[in-house]
Amino acid sequence: LEIDLHCLADHIRSHLEASQAPPRVCELAERVLTRVEAKFPITHPSNWGLPATGLADQVIWVWAEMAFGFLVGIEELGRQIGQDWDSQIPSDDWEIVHFFGFDNSFYHAILYPALYAAALPTWQGKISYVVNEFYLLENKKFSTSRRHAIWGKDILTDETVDPLRLFLSQTRPEVARTNFSRADYDRFRAEVYEGKLMAWLGDIFAAVEHDWQGVLPDAGDWTPAHIQFLDSLNSAGRNFETSMAAGHFSARRAARIFLQLLEDCQDFSAAQSRQRQNRDARGRTVTALEFSAAGLLCCMAAALMPRFAGRLAAALGMDHLLQWSANPVLLPAGTRLKAEALFASASPPIAPHR
Q1: Gap between the Cα atoms of 324 and 320, Å rounded
Q2: Contact yes or no for 177/135 (Cβ under 8 A)
Q3: Inter-residue contact 259 to 321 (CB < 8 Å)
Q4: 2 bridge partner residues
Q5: Which letter, b or e, does each residue of 247-267 get, where b requires 16 or more Cβ atoms within 10 Å of its Cβ?
Q6: What is the pLDDT of residue 323?
Q7: pLDDT of residue 248
Q8: Within 13 Å, how many C-alpha atoms sit on residue 207's CB side?
Q9: Which has the closest alpha carbon to 285: 342, 223, 344?
């Protein structure tokens, strides 16, 4: 059995336009749909797979099976959460997001919409596509057969999983091929993850321990600089939320926003360090804003580095920080910080900068 994509060309094109599919995927669709013939098999001879009714020794092609397997999966998900969803009568308010490499673009973004249109012509479900280009290793293709690969057991530990996830997010091949270099990753871990992120957090936790016996003070007087920093936190939160949305998903952009916010936090702390040391009304506001920023970083990290985010939330005494909120809030005054949940020792490993 075959499906003729020419018969469904208008639907495929309108679907890709409505879904805001990446330009490369739309270009591929045009190349396929302008071929003299665009028929593709739905069944094939095999003894492995779901038998095709009425066709001896043929089974349903696995890619066609997968398209409807997603709908069955949604039905099962609904059953688990008490929703009466039916895979054979999908609802228009279902939203599907496909994550895949460009080499699978034909199946996800061209064949599947055609199959849905043929089998479920009245369904107007929303589908979005998040596509990766190829990711190289030391400027060559990953190859397990040539043992040109990064083996999980050789690189993943409790200490490396968080910086590795952040580095992979930052270097994700979203619009063009990108490269994983072990030297670049090691440098990133030392200079950015340890040298900036953990160092800044160590500073602000140590300062509260030194100045306030580990209990977060209430904010006091606000200066224009304080209000400006709070505005920058709100802006970063909104931008990060956009980078996580299905139609605009970008792990690279999310990582950039996270790291830029970290730079802004370092600059704010450096500029306000003397004010913070005074421990007066304005100094308390500096400390409150630093930990509001830490809370926002925690919310962002829940998407990029969930293990790190869990430890930071515990250190801040705020499990709710693992639930996304684009608007930073001041952590409650009187919160007992638990630096040991984030750092290996019972207190931050470095003294506050004076």
Answers
A1: 8
A2: yes
A3: no
A4: 41
A5: eebbbbbbbbbbbebbebbee
A6: 85
A7: 86
A8: 27
A9: 223
Contact 259, 192 (CB under 8 A): yes
Kindly report each contact of residues 51-59 with a partner whose C-beta sits within 8 Å and lies 24 or more positions away, as own/partner.
52/1, 55/1
Question: pTM for the whole thing?
Answer: 0.86
Predicted confidence at residue 354, as pLDDT, reads 32
| 38's tokens | 């665009």
Contact residues for 50 (Cβ-Cβ < 8 A; gap 6+): 59, 60, 65
Task: Quote the pLDDT of residue 94.
Answer: 92
Locus of tokens 């001041």: 330
Tell me what pLDDT residue 329 has: 81
| Residue spans of the chain under pLDDT 70 | 344-354
| Pairing between β-strand 43-45 and β-strand 58-60 as defined by DSSP bridges | antiparallel
Output the pLDDT for position 162: 96
Question: In this structure, what token pair is assigned to residue 220?
Answer: 């006091």
- Residue 310's pLDDT is what? 94
**Sign of the C-alpha dihedral computed for residues 339, 344, 345 and 350 taken in this order:** negative
How far apart are the C-alpha atoms of 90 and 94, rounded to whole Å? 7
Nearby residues of 344 by Cβ (< 8 Å), 6 or more positions away:
none
d(CA 66, CA 68): 5
Measured in whole angstroms, how far is the alpha carbon of residue 278 from the centre of its chain? Answer: 39
Alpha-carbon separation of residue 146 from 41, 134, 149 (angstroms): 33, 17, 8
